[in-house]
Amino acid sequence: VQLVESGGGSVQAGGSLRLSCAASGGTFSDLDMDWSRQAPGKEREFVAAISWSDGKTYYVDSVKGRFTISRDNAKNTVYLQMDSLKPEDTAVYYCGATLRNIHYWGQGTQVIVSS
Predict the structure, then answer these.
(1) How far apart are CA 14 and CA 100, in angstroms?
(2) What tens digit of pLDDT does each residue of 70-98 get?
(3) Which 8-state DSSP code applies to residue 26?
């Protein structure tokens, strides 16, 4: 499974960005998809996930109500809509996929939120 993220960039606090992750090399509808992030000097943390079976979504508390994960199985793409961005959201965001208990990572996309 190969994952390619896009959509990162710089934005002011309160702004929005939408990240995209295109998957290939597997049956996309069988993949549980997720987003994680790693801020400078910190460990990577889970941000959001969406299951393949029922489309249920999961979020870390710090982004609930501001971020929305979604998927388009026809386009083999998962999205992370990020609204009301805060400086503490600054990080490299990684797309992930799980297939048969193996987890795959994308290369990451940088998000910078300035105050």
Answers:
(1) 38
(2) 999 899 999 999 999 999 999 999 999 99
(3) S
CB 52 within 8 A of CB 72: no
Residue with tokens 């965001």: 93
Q: Is the dihedral of CA 50, 28, 99, 46 positive or negative?
A: negative
Burial class (CB in 10 A: 0-12, 13-18, 19+), 33: buried
Count of residues for the chain?
115
How far is residue 67's CA from residue 106's CA, in Å, rounded to a whole number?
A: 19
* Tens digit of each residue's pLDDT (9 = 90 or more) over 47-77: 999 998 889 999 999 999 999 999 998 999 9
What gap in Å lies between CA 22 and CA 77, rounded to an integer? 5
Note whether 21 and 78 are within 8 A (CB).
Answer: yes
Q: Are strands 9-12 and 109-114 parallel, antiparallel or unpaired?
A: parallel
How far is the C-alpha of 10 from the C-alpha of 7, rounded, in Å? 10
Torsion of CA 86, 40, 101, 32, to 10 degrees: 20
